[in-house]
Specification:
Aminopeptidase; 35% helix; 198 residues; eight-stranded mixed β-sheet; alpha+beta
Length: 198
């Protein structure tokens, strides 16, 4: 578990999620707006996440899969957002990255904090690239991914982003890029050398 502060001074914790967090993960999904659920999961569903999806998200070894959340212990429902990576079966140095932040907590740096945490956790596991996907109409996600240093490619259906985890020189001088660089520097010692990534 990691304790840090958001840019507005809010004390938050970042920690990996496990089977005991099943009900909290389901509640976080329920609290997303229909549009946010669609942009993240690409399906039009109600506010209930299926058992199969929960099983998939909460299972897997730490070498192949990471799922972390940012929590505000001062709130009744503590979850602000969560992010995950899945190592590719075809390329062990690549992993699919995805991130979801509750609607009311967007633009607070939660996503950037989650990207930094998973960046370091995945790097420790030998992953050197993150690949992320978004729909072309999701302009805020596209802007954030570019601003955090991902390179974009359009395949005719979705936008594909790739972060080079081994090359911090590619981080742009945007506000999000600077914030990501600062988070990586803040967390590197603990997550690359410590026990927080397990």
């Amino acid at each position: 578990m990691i304790e840090t502060r958001l840019a507005d001074g809010t004390l938050v914790m970042a920690r990996p999620l496990g089977l005991a967090d099943r009900s909290q993960l389901a509640e976080g999904y329920r609290r997303l707006s229909p549009e946010s659920r669609y942009q993240r999961f690409w399906v039009r569903t109600g506010g209930v996440i299926g058992d199969k999806m929960l099983d998939r998200m909460l299972a897997g070894s730490v070498e192949e899969h990471g799922l972390w959340a940012v929590l505000d212990p001062a709130r009744d429902f503590q979850g602000l957002g969560a992010a995950s990576f899945w190592r590719s079966n075809e390329d062990g140095e690549d992993a699919e990255f995805s991130c979801t932040v509750l609607d009311e907590d967007q633009r607070r740096g939660v996503g950037t904090l989650l990207l930094a945490v998973l960046w370091l956790v995945a790097y420790r596991q030998g992953i050197r690239r993150f690949t992320g996907y978004t729909m072309p109409e999701n302009s805020s996600a596209i802007r954030w991914m570019r601003d955090t240093g991902a390179e974009a490619e359009w395949d005719g259906y979705k936008v594909i982003f790739r972060w080079d985890l081994a090359n911090l020189d590619k981080l742009p001088a945007s506000n999000a890029g600077i914030a990501l660089a600062e988070r990586l520097a803040e967390l590197a010692e603990e997550l690359l050398d410590g026990d927080s990534a397990s």
